[in-house]
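re: ur question from earlier - yeah i can do the single chain one, its not a big deal. heres the input i used so u can compare w yours
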Amino acid sequence: MYSLALRIVGDPHEAEEVAQDVFLQVWRAPTRYDRGRATVAGWLLMMTRSRAIDRVRARQARPIGTDTGEIVIAGLADDAIGPEANVITGQAVERLKAALQELPNAMRAAIELAYYEGLTQSAIAERLGEPLGTVKTRMRTALQRLRLALAQDGTQ
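and the output i got, formated as tokens:
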């Protein structure tokens, strides 16, 4: 969770706060977890991603001094799964990698930018030079394909 937050917010102290906020949220409302929708690890990572993106947006809305709050990330996401995937078993990671490789390049790029770099759909559209609607459609279709592929493997 910390490494995902760090990749998104870019500051170790803020990443610690994001992880702490997520644990606090889980402590206060553990019944919000629905085992039918995600694994515990997946649920925690999605909450971490959301909290981290909220932090970046808040920082951009209220820049301090010369810091604009922008995260500069060069290039597209690589094929490697980040450290946050360590909470998932190695076998599940391999199935996910294989399912991602089956996606067309445009869909895979959008998914990787969203989940491994923490970009919003608007930021992905800007980065890829594509219309927002196109990015949304690609991501929705890619997630449906991944869900189907992983469900067939018994991973979902």
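The chain has a mean pLDDT of 78. not sure if urs matches, ping me
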